[in-house]
């Protein structure tokens, strides 16, 4: 089975990303098409890009970069669970993407975005533009969560709708197809 990393992009205190990721991970486990690992950027703890060499050189000098490289390298596909900040991609996700180059290549990526009226769609579009530069393949299918606060319970858990679960399943189906189709490119690049 392809290895899918669900990346929680928000790192701020009080964030809703982990609750959304828990819900999405349950949907992905029910889907059954992936070996799933949740990766929380708050736990990864990358400082603002501090490597002296360009990521394409793959000459990492910091242990946190070497660890991040190994984490991204082992995945066949990704889903970013990401908020929208000020009409755009949040800084922690952009920084995590920018740390690496080859490790991202030829891997599909889906986005579960959340926000208020925009449902994080502007950030999702910006993220797609960024990842294509790294030879990733963003899927068209996505999960867009409007008015995120209305889906968070008193206990902090996220409750998705049936339509969100159907969108997530459709996105996972597409990621599975692309992960398999892109496998020869990943293997020849490594």
Please trace the helix and strand order, writing H or E for each element: EHEHHEEHEHEEH
In CATH, what is the class? Alpha Beta
The oligomeric status of these chains comes to: single chain
CATH superfamily: Flavodoxin domain
Number of domains: 1
Average pLDDT rating: 97
Secondary-structure content class: alpha/beta
Main β-sheet, in a few words?
A: 7 strands, mixed
The CATH topology annotation reads as Rossmann fold
Shape: globular
Number of helices: 6
Strand content: 15-25%
The proportion of residues forming helix, as a percent range, comes to 40-55%
C-alpha termini separation: 19 Å
Name of the CATH architecture: 3-Layer(aba) Sandwich
Total count of strands: 7
Low-pLDDT regions: none
Q: Kindly provide the radius of gyration, computed on alpha-carbon positions and rounded to a whole number of angstroms.
A: 16 Å
Explain this structure.
With 190 residues, the chain is of the alpha/beta class. The chain has one domain (3-189): 3-Layer(aba) Sandwich (Rossmann fold), CATH 3.40.50. 42% of the residues lie in helices and 18% in strands. The chain has helices at 17-31, 41-44, 63-73, 91-98, 121-133, 162-189; strands spanning 3-8, 35-40, 77-85, 88-89, 108-114, 137-138, 143-145. Strands 1, 2, 3, 4, 5, 6 and 7 form a 7-stranded mixed beta sheet that branches. Strand 5, helix 5 (121-133) and strand 6 (137-138) form a beta-alpha-beta unit. Helix 1 crosses helix 6 (162-189). The longest helix is centred in the C-terminal third of the chain and has 28 residues, at 162-189. It is globular, with a radius of gyration of 16 Å. The mean pLDDT is 97.
């Amino acid at each position: 089975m392809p290895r899918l990393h669900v990346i929680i992009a928000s790192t701020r205190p009080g964030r809703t990303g982990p609750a959304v990721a828990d819900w999405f991970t349950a949907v992905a486990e029910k889907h059954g098409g992936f070996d799933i690992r949740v990766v929380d950027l708050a736990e990864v703890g990358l400082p603002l890009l501090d490597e002296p060499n360009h990521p394409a050189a793959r000459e990492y000098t910091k242990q946190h970069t070497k660890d991040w490289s190994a984490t991204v390298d082992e995945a066949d596909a990704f889903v970013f669970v990401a908020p929208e900040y000020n009409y755009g991609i949040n800084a922690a996700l952009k920084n995590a993407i920018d740390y690496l180059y080859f490790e991202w290549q030829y891997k599909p990526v889906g986005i579960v975005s959340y926000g208020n009226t925009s449902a994080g769609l502007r950030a999702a579009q910006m993220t797609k533009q960024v990842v294509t530069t790294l030879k990733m393949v963003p899927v068209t299918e996505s999960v867009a969560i409007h008015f995120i606060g209305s889906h968070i319970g008193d206990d902090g858990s996220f409750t998705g709708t049936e339509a969100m679960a159907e969108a997530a399943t459709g996105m996972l189906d597409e990621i599975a197809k692309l992960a398999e189709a892109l496998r020869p490119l990943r293997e020849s690049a490594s």
